[in-house]
Amino acid sequence: MQVQVRCYATLSPYSPPEGLVEMAPGSTPRDLIQNLGLPMDEVKIIFVNGKSADLSTPLGDQDRVGVFPAVGGG
Amino acid sequence: MELSGFIQDLARHSHTLDNYPFACILDAPLLDLAGNYNIQPWQAQVKALENQICPERYIRNFKTISLDMQLDLARSRVIVVGAGGLGGFVIELLVRSGVGRMTVADGDVFELSNLNRQLLGSTHLVGKNKVEAAGNRAKDINPFTRVKTCGKYLQQEDLPGLLPESDLVLDCLGGVEFREQLLQAAGIHGCPVVTGFVAGNTGLASTVFPGDRTPAAFWQAGQGQGAEIALGNVACTVSMIATLQAREAIHILTRQKPCLRNRVFLADMQACSFESLEI
Fold first, then answer.
1. Which stretches of chain A sit within 8 Å of chain B by CB?
2. Does a structural domain hold residue B67?
3. Residue B223 in 3-state DSSP?
4. What confidence score (pLDDT) does residue B222 get?
C-alpha cells in the first residue's frame, strides 16, 4: 500500500521524495518512522488523515500522515 | 460615579455619518470627556458604545464587527504572555480592534536578531524592554486600550494574581518551556487560552478552554529543544500565526464560536498549505 507522508520543521529532511512511501499492509506509524529513518525520540506528535494518532494505529492505503517534532517558538 | 451628565455630553459631541445606523464620536472629544468626568479612556469608550455611539476609529469594523461586538471588545480584559514575535502582532491587532484592557508580560529586551520578525522591535530599541515598547505602541495606536505591563518572565506564582482578572490568555511565549504550566493554571482559573507556536516555515495555533484537549504534545521537550532553536523564526510564519490567534481571541471575546478548540491550525509556509488538524 502507498502512504502520503509529510514531516515538518526539523524533521522535514526525512519527508520521502514526492511525499509517498510504499509500506506493507497493516503497517503502523511506528513502522513508517523506522522505514524513513526518523529519530524516534524527536517525533512528538503524529496526525493520520488530519487526526492525532498513536504510533500503533494501523495505516491504510493512501492515508495521509503528518509527523512533528517539538515546536515552541514565538 | 455620576454619569448622567457624561451621557448627555457624549450625545452632544457625537455626530452621524451617512450609511451608518449609529452615532459616532471622534477621539479628542471622547478623551476630553473622560478627563472631565475623571474616568479612564477605556471606561469612556464602554459608556459611548453602551449608548450606541461608536468611536469613529472603529467604523470600518462595521458590519464585520457589530456595535454590540465592539462593546464586548471594549469591556474585555486579555493577558498577552510574551511580547516577542507572536506577541507583537497579536498586541497590534487586538489594540487596533478595540480590546479594552490588556496586560502584557515579558522580561526580555530587544536584540538585533529579533528585528527580522518582531513588530515592536526597531533599530533604536535594541537593548530596551519589550513590554515598554508594547505599552508605547499601544498608546500610539489606540488611547482607549488600557495597557498594563509586567516586565518579567512570568512564573507559576505570578499566575493566580493575573488570571482571575483576565477573560482570555494569549500564549505568545517563545520556547517550549512554561507553555503547559500556563495552560494548566488558566484551566484552573476557568480562563481560555489561544496559543501559537512556530519554527521556521511551520506555524501552529490552537484554542484551549478548560477541559479541552490540548496541543501540549508539541511541547514535550527539554529546555531549548524545540525545533525553533535549529530553524529560527521568520516574519511570515510568525505574523500568520499571530493573526490566527488574534482572530480566535476576537471571536471568543465577542461570544462567537472559536474554530480551533480541540484542533490545531497548521500553516505550512513552505508548501503554502493550511490545514485544521484534530487533536
1. 6, 8-12, 44-45, 47, 50-52, 66, 68-74
2. no
3. coil
4. 86
